[in-house]
Amino acid sequence: xxxxxxxxxxxxxxxxxxxxxxxxxxxxxxxxxxxxxxxxxxxxxxxxxxxxxxxxxxxxxxxxxxxxxxxxxxxxxxxxxxxxxxxxxxxxxxxxxxxxxxxxxxxxxxxxxxxxxxxxxxxxxxxxxxxxxxxxxxxxxxxxxxxxxxxxxxxxxxxxxxxxxxxxxxxxxxxxxxxxxxxxxxxxxxxxxxxxxxxxxxxxxxxxxxxxxxxxxxxxxxxxxxxxxxxxxxxxxxxxxxxxxxxxxxxxxxxxxxxxxxxxxxxxxxxxxxxxxxxxxxxxxxxxxxxxxxxxxxxxxxxxxxxxxxxxxxxxxxxxxxxxxxxxxxxxxxxxxxxxxxxxxxxxxxxxxxxxxxxxxxxxxxxxxxxxxxxxxxxxxxxxxxxxxxxxxxxxxxxxxxxxxxxxxxxxxxx
Length: 415
Prior knowledge:
This protein is 0% helix and 40% strand. By secondary structure, the chain is mostly beta strands. The protein has a 5-stranded antiparallel sheet, with no helix packed on it. Strands 2-7-6-5-4 form a 5-stranded antiparallel sheet, with no helix packed on it. Strands 12-13-14-15 form a 4-stranded antiparallel sheet, with no helix packed on it.
């Protein structure tokens, strides 16, 4: 994402090592819980509140068993000595057994964040700072084994971050980072895909048509054959004009096709910036946010909208918020492309699951009074059926007894 300065690091082995992490007992999910309800996820083994900092970037496995998140708190597991200002650890909660693990512990001190879980619930990928640079690691849940994934890139690219996993964890899409800040006329950041089975890495982002371009925010299809990502510019001047500072592309790794997604139905480029691509499991649907006014007609030219493109038919759909007058941002998409997790702002704030087939909006961030509360979610925050959603919020009235004055991670059961 270009948010960190990095320094040159010595290459390390692909396999960090097999680590047997003993799970820490934590209160298991109460059996027999039914109906809509919210629970706090980032609690200590004895059920007490997180202390020492906020918790962020939650991801949930499709079956709802595992929740991964990163946290500044230092009391979630015993022996957490990874201290420092704004230093995060990555935690994995097993809601079936009640255990909680700090999965970046074997890497030593340094920040770790932005975890994602494979659809088969076997692997967790995340960023971790080691030897002064950020790298991408894949953690095998059953064995505790850690493997570095950001290897085999182009010359000068020595680090990585923001991973996305194929359904079986074989393929890892990530943002490749240079060891030094590149000149203004060179692309900054490239998207790569690592095949963990063959040990090979290939570039997924396109070769820029103009200088000063960069690539980030990779999302990968279930079979690893398609990658959606963002192309951005330091100075604007994209295919849609001077205000077009970012566009969404879809790479087909089997055919080599690079297709711009944020266009009109007849292929004209978006005239303003587009961000935050999301991809369905089969790669057919790509959702994104855009301030462009020419993709489809928009009622208010002073705001941005959520769009969904059907790459099979070419159709583009604008997705509005509640009553059509809410500012909305797409945070996640279901594997079948039917549901979006939308973050609303404007008239009211909150997270909603929108069923694109029926148009129904379901609130997933209510306060204890049932009214919407402001919250933020990541691209892996929703189960396929939309019945469970994890998110973060700094507010203290989503569950009873929240007095730690920190951003917490919550799990909302819709049914």
